[in-house]
Amino acid sequence: MLNKVILIGRLTKDPELRYTPGGTAVTKFTLAVNRFRNKQGEREADFIDIVVWQRQAEVCANYLGKGRLVAVEGRLQIRSYDDSQGIRRKAAEVVANSVRFLDRARDGGAGSGGTGLSEDAVGYGSEIAFNEEDIPF
């Protein structure tokens, strides 16, 4: 059986880093992924929750920020939980095996220089030109 997801999109807000009681790092962020244009010629986007674990979670939390372009490779996971009213809910998320940074931070924010890590260590790809109007948020 195969469960593999590959997405390219932009972070909708800064990643959230937390640690499990056992000390394992986990970072969550939401990726905005453009769809083909609709019948009216407008772009639409899907907003997909991403979960990253261990050292890669810390790297993502430290070097990514809102608007950054990334490629995520992982698996789709559907989990169930009970909400505050006791109603059973389902959540779909991508558990990342790999997160590649496809651009560089534009200002002194997350991902800018002075990290002591090489570009390969944090997963930069080739720089991609984009139009600011293409960002769905």
Would you give an account of this structure?
The chain has 137 residues and is mainly β. The protein has a single domain, classed as OB fold (Dihydrolipoamide Acetyltransferase, E2P) (Beta Barrel). It is 10% helix and 42% strand. The chain contains two helices and six strands, in the order E-E-E-E-H-E-E-H. The protein has a five-stranded mixed barrel. The protein is globular, with a radius of gyration of 16 Å. The termini are far apart. The relative contact order is 0.22. About 15% of the residues have low confidence.
What key attributes describe this structure?
137 residues, mainly beta, OB fold (Dihydrolipoamide Acetyltransferase, E2P), 2 helices, globular
Please write out the topology:
Layout: E1 5-11, E2 16-19, E3 25-34, E4 45-53, H1 54-63, E5 69-82, E6 88-101, H2 119-122
Parallel strand pairs: 4-6
Antiparallel strand pairs: 1-3, 1-5, 2-3, 3-4, 5-6
Question: Residue share in helices?
Answer: 10-25%
- Please tell me how large the radius of gyration is: 16 Å
Helix and strand run: EEEEHEEH
H/I helix tally? 2
Proportion in β-strands: 35-45%
Order of neighbouring strands in the sheet with most strands: 1-3-4-6-5
Poorly predicted runs of 5 or more residues: 111-130
Q: CATH first level: which class?
A: Mainly Beta
Any idea of the CATH topology?
OB fold (Dihydrolipoamide Acetyltransferase, E2P)
At CATH level 2, the architecture is: Beta Barrel
Determine the structural class based on helices, strands and strand pairing: mainly beta
Task: Report a brief summary of the structure.
The chain is mainly beta and 137 residues long.
